[in-house]
Amino acid sequence: MPRFVSTYLFIFLAGVLLLEACQTSSPTTLLTPTRAYRTKQVVLVVIDGVRYSDSWGDSSFQNIPFMAHQLAPQGVFLPRFFNQGVTYTNPGHVALTTGHYQRLRNNGSEEPKYPSVFHYFREQTKAPASKAWIIASKDKLEILARTESPDQAAAFAPAVNAGNSGIGTGYRHDTTTLRVAKGLLAQHTPQLVLINLRGPDSEAHAGNWHGYLQAIRQSDQLVFDLWQWLQAHPTYQNTTTLLVTNDHGRHLGSRFKEHGDSCEGCRHISLLVLGPDVKPGHIATQTRSQVDVAATMAELLGIPVPKRDGVPMLELFRPE
């Protein structure tokens, strides 16, 4: 090879490596909050495995009377809300908390690829772990407090209380989870909380149709009870935004026992939002998905987060 060619090749390769290095070290695009809000705390409740047709899609609202008749007039409801990723428990929760759809095993053996809004909240506020909590009926959701990411935010894990005592210890009753959640909120007054209620999903997997419907009604009661409790607490009263949604739905018709594909029943879920910044009694018309939730929570708390797949749902809030 002629000398001038080898020299040119060396310069070219060096330039490529330098370019790649610059690209790797370039700053991540951030979603920065657009304004200040009255919200000081955010609580996300995920009711596991409820079909839209068995809750908000039923015009009688017989399974969700408290949310439909007592809470919805105080908040904003999104009828066109979807899981556009993997319609299983862990991927659904990861989409809600990281703003990124990810394929991962559903048994708790695989951690999220990215840090969650809980990690970024702690990193940027320097708050202790006790100010951000993952509280779940399902033990495998302990992974929401973890991440395999090398990002420095990964070091700022939230506190976690999942299942009987973490991964591998089994599920617990939702009434126990809500009691635990109230105790932790009263003791630590966290600013960012996720609560998982597993009842409907567990009853459906057992093939218990009446148990499934009863579990939806119990979840409805527990959400109402939680909102009443928050509004009676001096720290949370009138400064807390509550988001109530699902991780996934279920197959339509008699196949209600299972879920996991891209059918309408598995994808179509719901979102109800209450708090000091929302439009009371409003029904939003825009189509949204799970990945918009993390960005919205960050927006409310004034926390810049790396841009993933979602954006803040600004249409939910009153004009500044």
UniProtKB/TrEMBL annotation:
UniProt KW Cell membrane keyword: no
Signal peptide (UniProt feature, chain positions): 1-21
Record carries keyword Hydrolase: yes
Keywords: Hydrolase, Signal
GO MF annotation, one: arylsulfatase activity
Family of this protein: Belongs to the sulfatase family.
Entry protein name: Alkaline phosphatase
